[in-house]
Fold this sequence. Notes:
This protein has two domains: 22-74, no CATH class; 81-203, C2 domain (Immunoglobulin-like). The chain contains one helix and eleven strands. The protein has one helix at residues 93-102, and strands spanning 22-30, 36-45, 54-60, 67-73, 81-84, 116-124, 139-145, 148-151, 162-171, 177-186, 189-200. GO terms for molecular function: calcium ion binding. Residues 1-59, 93-204 form the C2 domain. Belongs to the MCTP family.
Amino acid sequence: KSANPQWREQFDFHYFSDRKDMLDIEVWRKDNKKHEELLGTCHVDITALPAKQTNCLELPLEKHPGSLLMLIAVAPCTGVSISDLCVCPLGDPNERQQIFQRYCIKNSFRDMKDIGFLQVKVLKAVDLMAADFSGKSDPFCVLELGNDMLQTHTVYKNLNPEWNKVFTFPIKDIHDVLEVTVFDEDGDKPPDFLGKVAIPLLSV
C-alpha cells in the first residue's frame, strides 16, 4: 500500500569482468498470490560504472512513471569460488594451515567482517522425483547463503545425478542458514521444484 516503498535490501552478484552483462531490474506489484502486475523495468551497464566505489543511481522506469534509487558497488570478489572435486580449494595442506592461522583466536579481531567461510561439496542426489513424461528429470542444484547464490550444472535425463562440485562462500552472519534446493530444468519455463534442505551454520 505504498507508492514510495523503501526496501533497504542488499544483494551480491558474482560478476566476471570479461563479460558485458547488463543488470536488469523489474518492479512488480502484487495484489494477492495470483495477480501480479509489472510496474516498470530499468537497466544498468555494469561495465560503465567506476570500480571500487559505491555509485548512487536514480534510474527512471522505462515506459512507466516512477524511478528507483540504488547504490551499486563493483568490487573485487573474495572468498567465493566454484571448482571440481579433484581441485578442491582446501585440498592443499599448506592452504589449510594458512586458513587455520587466519582464523585462530589471536587473530579474531584483525578484521571483524571476516567471520570465516563455508565450503560445500555437492556430490550427488539419489532417487529424485521424475518431473518429465519420460520418467526422468534434468536436475541441477542451487545453494543459497544469505544473498549469495551459486548453482551446479544440469545433469540431463537422470534421477541419480552426480555433480561433484565444490562451492566456497564467505560468511557474513554466523546465524545464516545454508539452503540447498534441487530443481528440474524445464527449457524456457520456470524450473520444477524437486526438493530442499536447510542447514543452519550454527549446526555445522
